[in-house]
Amino acid sequence: MDNRNRIITEAAGLFRIYGIKSVTMDSLANHLGMSKRTIYEIFANKDELLVGVLNWMTEKQNDLIRKVLNESENAIVAIFRLLEFNRDHFLNMSPAFQEDMKRFHQEVLVNKAFKCEMPDYKNNIQVIERGIKEKLFRDDINPDLVNRCLYQLAKSVLDNDSYPIEQFSRRDVIKNVFINYLKGISTFKGIELINSLEPDF
After folding, report:
1. With bands split at pLDDT 50, 70 and 90, how would you rate the model's confidence at 11?
2. Which of 15, 98, 121, 129 is the most buried if burial means most Cβ atoms within 10 Å?
3. 11, 6, 5: which is closest to 23 by C-alpha?
4. Model-level pTM?
5. What residues make up the domain containing 36?
6. Which of 42-56, 110-124, 140-154, 182-196 has the lowest mean pLDDT?
7. Which residue stretches of 72-169 are H helix?
8. What is the CATH number of the domain that holds 193?
């Protein structure tokens, strides 16, 4: 692994655990066992490093989505696996990381035309179309609209402002917001499958 990828990978891990503000370039250099100068030769400043980390995270998520879609036995199983991944990803991420993103780095990301989100919804429309072919989703739905809606719902359930984690567990939010919508677009066969998977989620 070259220095750039090593710095990004280790910085991503530290940001997720401690938040962005708490991880200084000095502490990152000490963690990596390299000089701060080496880091600055690759990244001009911490904001540039953050953009590199977020791009890396998005690429990893997109790779996972492609893998899950290719390996799952049907569309609903694929969706549940992706939900589980996003739930675990959220639970393993320090609240400080999310707060730091909102408080200190939004302007930087806007200026760099970088949008930190879940993977692009356009890549996921195939799971809706697959579900229709498998007769798990109703054939009278609009796959593009449904896909966009599911994407927004999946984003919203991770929003601590809309659903404070002190008040609602992520599992309860996902079940009440996302899974209820999923049942609404499903056939009877799809609903039976969702009901069989939901208790283990």
Report:
1. very high
2. 15
3. 11
4. 0.72
5. 3-200
6. 110-124
7. 75-91, 95-100, 106-111, 125-133, 143-156
8. 1.10.357.10
